[in-house]
Design goal:
Shape: globular
Radius of gyration: 17 Å
Number of domains: 1
CATH superfamily: NADH Oxidase
CATH class: Alpha Beta
Number of strands: 4
Strand content: 5-15%
Largest sheet: 4 strands, antiparallel
Helix content: 25-40%
Strand order of the largest sheet: 1-2-4-3
Length: 197
């Protein structure tokens, strides 16, 4: 097995959907945010805005709005997201798409820029790896705009002073994993995914 610390972190990282209720340490949050800020961006534009919300009530309301506006097929016995830590697709009883995470970072990017989604995705990956290295759990949540699809969400966008022309690409959840949960195991890697010529 590899001795490289970065590779160890990559191999250990998992989506965490069950969190302790407490906030993460401020210095850990700052390191995670710096990892996002230093992510690559198309053309070096640095267009991603990171809206960090630690307000439990706001996160819960936005998570419920997102859940109500999510349009997906529920999982089946053979097609599911996670048996260890069920997602909102796996468990219809979960009504908060943010899983009561103490920190929700919404990443906003220019609506009219070709690589907004990619810029947010690489920033999220940087932050997830940094979070994992610090013992902080994280979970990437796509289709960020659905959390703002009602009057409360629109008011939050105004309160946060999100510029016109920007939209919520995705959310990143952060928090300490619950102590009683076993860290999810890596799924076996599928064969024949690397082609060499």
């Amino acid at each position: 097995m590899t001795e490289n610390e970065v590779m160890k972190t990559i191999m250990y990282r998992r989506a965490i959907r069950r969190f302790e209720g407490k906030q993460i340490a401020e210095d850990e949050l700052e390191q995670i945010l710096q990892a996002g800020v230093y992510a690559p961006s198309a053309g070096g534009r640095q267009g991603v805005i990171f809206a960090v919300c630690q307000d439990k009530e706001v996160n819960e309301k936005l998570g419920k709005i997102k859940r109500a506006n999510s349009n997906f097929r529920m999982s089946t016995a053979t097609s599911y997201v996670s048996k260890e830590q069920p997602s909102i697709v796996d468990d219809p009883k979960l009504i908060n798409a943010f899983y009561d995470a103490p920190i929700v970072i919404t990443m906003f990017a220019p609506r009219n820029f070709l690589f907004s989604v990619e810029d947010c995705a690489v920033a999220a990956e940087n932050m997830m790896l940094m979070a994992t290295s610090l013992g902080v759990g994280s979970c990437y949540i796509g289709q960020g705009w659905t959390a703002f699809a009602d009057p409360f969400g629109q008011e939050i966008l105004k309160k946060w002073d999100i510029p016109n022309g920007y939209y919520a690409v995705m959310q990143l959840l952060l928090g300490y994993p619950r102590k009683e949960d076993k860290h999810p195991m890596a799924k076996p890697r599928k064969e024949k995914r690397i082609l060499r010529f």
